[in-house]
Amino acid sequence: MGAETTSPAAYTAEVSTPGDREVVVKRRFNAPVSLVWRCYTEPELVKRWLTGYEGWTMPVCEIDLRVGGSYRYRWRNSEDGSEFGFVGTYSRVDTESRIDHTEMMEGAEDMPPSENVIAFEPLGDMTELVITMTYISAEVRQMVLDTGMTDGMGSSFDKLDELLALERH
Fold first, then answer.
1. 75 DSSP β-pair partners
2. What is the rounded CA–CA span in Å between residue 56 and residue 77?
3. CA distances (Å), 155 to each of 11, 52, 68, 93, 109, in order?
4. % of the chain surpassing 90 pLDDT
5. Could you tell me if 123 and 31 are in contact, meaning their C-beta atoms sit under 8 angstroms apart?
6. How far from 123 is each of 27, 28, 112, 146, CA to CA, in Å?
7. Is the distance from CB of 142 to CB of 148 less than 8 angstroms?
8. Which residue, 162, 158, 153, is CA-closest to 73?
């Protein structure tokens, strides 16, 4: 492949498992950090792209972005009406740079939350997003990976590309 292109289709999520409890997802976006940050932290923008696979919507997106604040995401399948959601608490918020938070599935309060770090790295007019998720055990990490979570993230990131293109103009 020749020189790097700026076409959104050129970017895909890179998934790695550097330790026995971690999952790292990296993805580049053709937009400045300030715009990627807005799309990641403003509920009305988040609802437009963080929907996973086709046929899912996000009717609930609550974000209280501050240390000690919390969030709640809830998705709905438009065909069968099934729903699921996640909640978490923010432990670090560095504007346009980093968000640390817990994450757990609603209704699974007996399972320890994952510890997540989202880093926003500027690359000129582009952004590299690095998400590190750390689970309580290797078994829990594998259970999460077996759900197809990273494929759903890739689908959502493709939608984020589309939203970023719209918001840039």
1. 84
2. 4
3. 12, 5, 30, 26, 27
4. 79
5. no
6. 12, 9, 35, 32
7. no
8. 153
Digit-coded pLDDT (tens) for 27-60 = 999 999 999 999 999 999 999 999 988 899 999 9
Question: Residue 28 forms beta bridges with which residues?
Answer: 128
Instruction: Provide the strand spans (E) within the chain.
Output: 14-16, 22-29, 56-63, 70-77, 83-94, 98-105, 114-123, 126-134
pTM over 0.85: yes
Rounded Cα distance, 156 and 131, in Å: 14
What percent of the chain clears pLDDT 70, i.e. is strictly above it? 94
Helical (H) or strand (E) element with 154: helix 149-168
For residue 126, CA distances in Å to 9, 31, 52, 55, 139 come to 14, 5, 23, 29, 35
Bridge partners of residue 94, in order along the sequence = 98
Torsion of CA 10, 127, 13, 87, to 10 degrees: -140
Angle made by CA atoms 132, 135, 138, in degrees to the nearest 5: 115
Asked if pLDDT for residue 1 goes beyond 80, the answer is no
